[in-house]
Specification:
CATH topology of the largest domain: Jelly Rolls
Shape: elongated
Largest sheet: 6 strands, antiparallel
Number of helices: 9
Strand content: 15-25%
CATH class of the largest domain: Mainly Beta
Helix content: 40-55%
Length: 276
């Protein structure tokens, strides 16, 4: 395939867009662009890398061209189309995002995000970034950079999780849902069905990978959330119990006491005295 030689441009603080490209789309910047370039594939596939070596990327895959790295990217001939979000940006001084992402080729980082929460988080954040760079607002650049950082945080979180363990994506999705939806009463059969497994297989795999039974993990998330509500709000114990999926405030109090070694009211009073 003959690559389209693309002229370099002045480094962008932050700028991005969404592209839907056909089979003839290509870009080649021999000297890079002076800024970082992030690509996130939504549909179809592309080829990314340098003139000597390219790698195929598909839906859910993130690519980061480092500053001044050669940029070659084009629609994968086998796919025939490529839909992706992209962003040129100059990293803020404290940003180290991408430094430990897996290397695809020299100067190019590459990461596959699991489906669900991570992909949705990255897509939503990048779409927010794109909306802000089009605004005439005086603080649009700051809002855009904040949205971009949120996307980079999502990506970094998944990279760290992937380096730290080989958690089954079904188990990880359940763990994330337990932390996010603490108001849902826990039911092993329902949770296993949502994970696409039998209750016995789910319980075994969850305990093997999370280090504790699913019911214990779910309750831990509820208790952590309850502690925050007791510390930071004026909600009654009954309201806190309901917010954490407990119909019975007395039962909630007994479980909280077991977890915190003190009652909900005593926990709240101590937090108020110590400011912690």
């Amino acid at each position: 395939m003959k690559l389209q030689l693309t002229r370099g441009h002045s480094a962008q603080t932050v700028y991005g867009n969404s592209f839907k490209e056909g089979p003839r789309y290509s870009n080649w910047r021999p000297q890079g662009s002076g800024d970082c370039l992030l690509l996130f594939t939504l549909h179809g596939a592309g080829q990314v890398g340098n003139l000597q070596e390219q790698q195929r990327v598909g839906p859910g895959e993130v690519v980061l061209f480092e500053q001044n790295a050669e940029q070659v990217y084009f629609t994968d001939p086998g796919a025939g189309h490529w839909e992706f979000l992209w962003c040129h940006y100059l990293p803020r001084q404290a940003w180290t995002y991408g430094a430990n992402w897996p290397v695809a080729v020299q100067g190019v980082r590459h990461l596959l995000l699991p489906g669900g929460v991570a992909r949705n988080g990255v897509r939503s954040a990048l779409e927010d970034m794109i909306r802000w760079v089009r605004q005439p607002d005086a603080l649009a650049v700051e809002f855009a950079l904040n949205a971009l950082e949120k996307a980079l945080l999502w990506i970094g979180r998944e990279n760290a999780a992937g380096q730290g363990s080989e958690i089954d994506p079904r188990i990880r999705a359940v763990m994330e849902r337990m932390a996010r939806e603490v108001e849902r009463p826990f039911d092993i059969a329902t949770t296993a069905r949502e994970a696409g497994m039998s209750a016995s297989r789910f319980s075994h795999l969850f305990r093997e990978q999370a280090g504790r039974p699913p019911r214990d993990y779910a309750e831990e998330q509820k208790m952590r959330h309850a502690a925050q509500l007791l510390r930071l709000t004026n909600q009654s114990v009954q309201e806190v119990a309901a917010a954490c999926g407990f119909e019975n405030a007395f039962y909630f109090s007994s479980r909280f006491r077991r977890w915190a070694k003190t009652s909900p009211r005593a926990f709240r009073n101590k937090s108020a005295r110590t400011g912690s």
